[in-house]
Amino acid sequence: xxxxxxxxxxxxxxxxxxxxxxxxxxxxxxxxxxxxxxxxxxxxxxxxxxxxxxxxxxxxxxxxxxxxxxxxxxxxxxxxxxxxxxxxxxxxxxxxxxxxxxxxxxxxxxxxxxxxxxxxxxxxxxxxxxxxxxxxxxxxxxxxxxxxxxxxxxxxxxxxxxxxxxxxxxxxxxxxxxxxxxxxxxxxxxxxxxxxxxxxxxxxxxxxxxxxxxxxxxxxxxxxxxxxxxxxxxxxxxxx
Length: 240
Hints:
Blueprint: E1 2-6, H1 10-22, E2 26-30, H2 33-37, E3 45-48, H3 57-67, E4 72-76, H4 81-89, E5 94-97, H5 102-116, E6 138-140, E7 143-146, E8 151-154, E9 157-158, H6 163-173, E10 180-181, H7 182-190, H8 199-212, E11 218-221, E12 225-228
Parallel strand pairs: 1-2, 1-3, 3-4, 4-5
Antiparallel strand pairs: 6-7, 7-8, 8-9, 10-12, 11-12
Helix pairs in contact: 6-7, 6-8
């Protein structure tokens, strides 16, 4: 699904683009309202900041809605009721005030697309016009991770994981053997605005180790974080 992000602040746009990419979205980002209006119109949904450097986001919303039914979610620091009402009356489909977590935004995107009946574009292979094949399941020793179906198998037997456990495993499996810091994991699997106890990560790691059947799948880099390894092939110095 292609998203058009109209946001001038790099501190917001960078993490947002990265976070949405982890959920399978393709994000094209522009910095001004004019650039957003000059887009080719192929986006499945628009994420629109109101505080743009060249024009008011409300005017961008009005212009987009005049020419297209594309779903629009406003993302802005303006949290006043008058701004929310104005945006919705101009045709925005939802309104999300900063700060917010990526998970909340993803939930809003999914809700809006369900409500509007928007259909995501078929991903195209760069420069070919051909559909991109679905990613094959990842295999690490006896472990198999299918991100498309969110299923996991160990030694050929399917292992039931909670959504958070799957996200944790998939994150570690992106770069097996590499140490992922606790903060990196919390930002990626929870989100940068999560303020709960960090012990929740330890609890999920412990549960995941049990379900995978061998604590050696996830080893601890003391004082740093965790890594995913094939049992028996743990890097020297790793402690489980």
